[in-house]
Amino acid sequence: MKRNKYVFGTIIMVVLVTLNITSCSKDDIKGENGSSFPPKKTIVIETKSYETWTYFSFEKGVIGTYKEGEFNYKNNTTWDIAFHRWDIRTNSGESGIGKGGAFLTNYGGDLKVDMWSTMPSKGEFITDASIKTYMAIPNMNSEDGADQRVIVPANTILAKWLTVVMTSIPPKYALLNKAFVVRTANGKHAAISFTNYMNDKAVKGYVNFDYIYPLD
User: Fold this and answer.
1) How much of the chain exceeds pLDDT 70, in percent?
2) In angstroms, rounded to a whole number, what is the distance separating the alpha carbons of residues 133 and 79?
3) How many Å apart are CA 5 and CA 186, to the nearest integer?
4) How far apart are CA 208 and CA 176, in angstroms?
5) pLDDT tens, residue by residue, 74-112
6) 54 forms bridges with which residues in the sheet?
7) The dihedral of CA 177, 179, 183, 189: what is its sign?
8) What is the pLDDT of residues 20-63, one digit of tens each?
9) CA 111 to CA 43: how far, in whole Å?
10) Which DSSP helix (H) or strand (E) runs through 44?
């Protein structure tokens, strides 16, 4: 009888160990603390238009592309992050009622780095504020020198992902090789790293980024 109990217990242990091994994908990203994270995903979003914003949810993907005023982005939590040319919003502050925000890490763009072992505190996330940007194609032949930009809400931390120098012809672009942590509309977290501002045909106006979600 004791022998049967021993054999039964051994079988149960083998089954549990097997289940534990098979439940973790070989593509899972391991943190230095030994925890397992979802696999990295990559997305490319077209942002060539001066007039539109593309809204994105880390859970659902692209929500839609709208002109300013066509989408009531400030009063819903269906989206987490939005893109306009090189501008980016989070669902926070002046952009929305969500719990969003952004934090710039000291780590490079490789999202396999265990940047989230020390998650930023709630107060370290920067929420959205007013910025000036072009919401129409600028008239380069204007003679009155008037500022053609308008005031819209966006995130000043995520704005650092790309530096565009318009005073040179052609403009110069410098991509920031750093990882960000984005807080979503519902308070979860995603690691995000921007990898390009062009598509595979070298056409500018395409935001390329890798992300890992959720980190929680």
Assistant:
1) 80
2) 21
3) 48
4) 13
5) 999 999 999 999 999 999 999 999 999 999 998 889 887
6) 65, 83
7) positive
8) 323 333 333 344 444 577 899 999 999 999 999 999 999 999 99
9) 14
10) strand 41-46
What is the distance between the alpha carbons of residues 54 and 191, in angstroms, rounded to a whole number?
19
Look at the block and give the residue holding tokens 């091994």.
21
Contact between 57 and 79 (Cβ < 8 Å)? yes
Q: Are 48 and 205 in contact (CB under 8 A)?
A: yes
- Residue 74, classed as helix, strand or coil, is helix
CA 20, 23, 24, 27 torsion: positive or negative? positive
Q: What is the pTM of this model?
A: 0.82
Residue 164, φ and ψ in degrees, nearest 5: -115, 120
- Residues 37 and 31: their CA atoms lie apart, in Å, by 8
Position 145 scores a pLDDT of 66
Q: Tokens for 99?
A: 């719990």
First to last CA, the chain: 46
Going from the C-alpha of 111 to that of each of 8, 16, 100, 159, 162, the distances in angstroms are 43, 31, 20, 19, 18
From the CB of residue 100, how many other CB atoms can be counted at a distance below 10 Å? Answer: 28
177: its two tokens = 């090789």
In contact, 37 and 215? CB cutoff 8 Å: yes
Choose among 45, 28, 50, 112: nearest CA to 80: 45
Q: Which residues contact 167 (CB under 8 A, 6 or more apart)?
A: none
Class of residue 8 by CB neighbours under 10 A (exposed 0-12, middle 13-18, buried 19+) = exposed
